[in-house]
Design brief:
Length: 294
């Protein structure tokens, strides 16, 4: 096994979960509202979800108080627990989650940049309609995958991947870079070893790297901009289409065929292999994803 493959397998097992440091989250009792300080109406029905939502944070997006609050408010907005019927009052949010006004302001700015909320003078901060959300944002992809829109999310991601990835595979065959070719070979090697060990986490991370890299080397900057979307789709409880939460010899074989076609500069063969990969487990589209545990 190559040095890169060995390094990635080691990193996949020891990677930081993205949550707050030891004890940091426990100092902020998200599931218990400070008695008498916050109007209950805006948070009705949300308490049961809060403890779970806070532990779904991923990567740098979920690190520290700011990331945790973005994660929780974002999940609550996407799930419909927070709606446009009343403004989001920073003071109430700060008291409810026992964080500073600075943390609240920074979190609301992040949500505003994602199109989830808007702040206007004399109106306050309110949740925006779904049509205004940045649905291609990796965070929103993840939040929708764990909310009532999860079935639509999986179908839409499936449709998007069918549009993007076969084309990317065809285009990537025209860019015969030896370093990229070796990295793709390494990813397939990692997936094969992980499958043999029953290591689904390492398999899924290598698979996400494979697909993201393939799009990035397609030579189309607009497609490259979408690589994060495909990566997010693959990392939400396994691939929505290829069933990488249940890796098989067939899916591994198709990955290998894609690499061989790229190495030969055969665009049509690479496109065909990608289409076959995307139909290995078509029934997975109808499976509701389970939240990732860290």
């Amino acid at each position: 096994m190559s040095t890169l493959a060995h390094t990635m397998m080691t990193a996949a097992r020891s990677a930081d979960s993205g949550l707050a440091g030891p004890g940091e989250l426990d100092r902020y009792p998200y599931a218990e509202a400070p008695t008498g300080r916050v109007g209950a109406s805006v948070w009705d029905g949300a308490d049961q979800e809060l403890g779970r939502v806070g532990r779904r944070a991923t990567g740098s997006r979920g690190r520290g108080l700011h990331g945790q609050l973005v994660q929780q408010l974002g999940q609550m907005i996407v799930s419909g627990d927070l709606g446009a019927d009343r403004p989001l009052v920073p003071e109430e949010i700060g008291q409810r989650f026992e964080v500073s006004r600075t943390v609240v302001r920074e979190s609301l700015r992040v949500l505003e940049a994602k199109g989830l909320v808007s702040a206007r003078p004399n109106v306050g901060t309110r949740v925006r309609p779904v049509s205004d959300w940045n649905l291609l944002d990796p965070d929103i992809i993840e939040w929708r995958a764990f909310g009532p829109q999860r079935d639509n999310q999986r179908r839409e991601l499936s449709d998007l991947r069918w549009t993007i990835e076969p084309l990317a595979a065809r285009l990537a065959a025209g860019h015969g870079r030896a370093d990229v070719q070796q990295r793709l070979v390494d990813m397939v090697e990692i997936m094969g070893h992980a499958m043999g060990q029953g290591d689904a986490l390492t398999f899924s991370r290598a698979d996400a790297e494979f697909h993201s890299l393939l799009i990035q080397v397609a030579g189309n900057r607009m497609l490259e901009h979408l690589s994060g979307i495909v990566s997010a789709a693959l990392q939400v409880s396994g691939a929505p289409v290829t069933g990488c939460d249940r890796p098989t010899d067939a899916s591994l074989s198709h990955h290998g065929r894609i690499v061989d076609a790229l190495g030969a500069g055969d665009g049509p063969a690479a496109e065909s292999a990608m289409r076959q990969l995307l139909t290995v487990h078509p029934e997975v589209e109808r499976v509701v994803p389970a939240p990732r545990e860290h």
